Amino acid sequence: QVQLVESGGGLVQAGGSLRLSCAASGRTFIRYIMGWFRQAPGKEREHVTAISWTGGSTYYSDSVKGRFTISRDNAKNTVYLQMNSLQPEDTAVYYCAAQENGGIGLGARFYKYWGQGTQVTVSS
Question: Is 116 left (phi over 0), alpha (psi -120 to 50) or beta?
C-alpha cells in the first residue's frame, strides 16, 4: 500500500509557474513508476507525465511537452511536477499516481494508487 499526498497547487496568472509535490509513504517508493494526471471540469482525466523509478525514462503528453518537467527524489519519497508557461487550459485538479510494475504505462488504468488531488487554476 502506498499513500500519496499532493501539494503546491494554487492560483497563478497565465505565463506563470507552479511546482507540485507528491509525497509518498508506505511501501518502497523507489519501486514505483510515478505519474501526474489532471482533470478539468467536464473533461476526461488526462495523463500528463510519468517517470520511471530511476528517473531515466519519462513521458509527457503533447499538451505539456516543453513546459512541464517531472522529477523525483527517491531519498525523500517525493515526485515533483514543475509547470512553466502555464495557460488557462492547464486549469484542472492534478493527481499524483503510482504504478507498481512494468514500463511506464500510458493511461490511468495502469496506476493503482492515487492521491487526493490538488487544484491548479490559471487566470488569463
Answer: alpha
Cell (9 digits) for 45: 482525466
Decide if 74 contacts 54 (C-beta within 8 A): no
* Closest-CA residue to 35 (of 44, 22, 25): 22
Q: Which amino acid is at 9?
A: G
User: Taking all residues of the chain, what is their mean pLDDT, rounded to a whole number?
Assistant: 95
Angle at alpha carbon of residue 66, lines to 105 and 103, rounded to 5°:
15
At residue 78, what is the residue type? T
**Residue closest to 37 by CA, chosen among 16, 67, 6, 3:** 6
Q: What percent of the chain has pLDDT over 90?
A: 86
Segment (H or E) for 21: strand 18-26
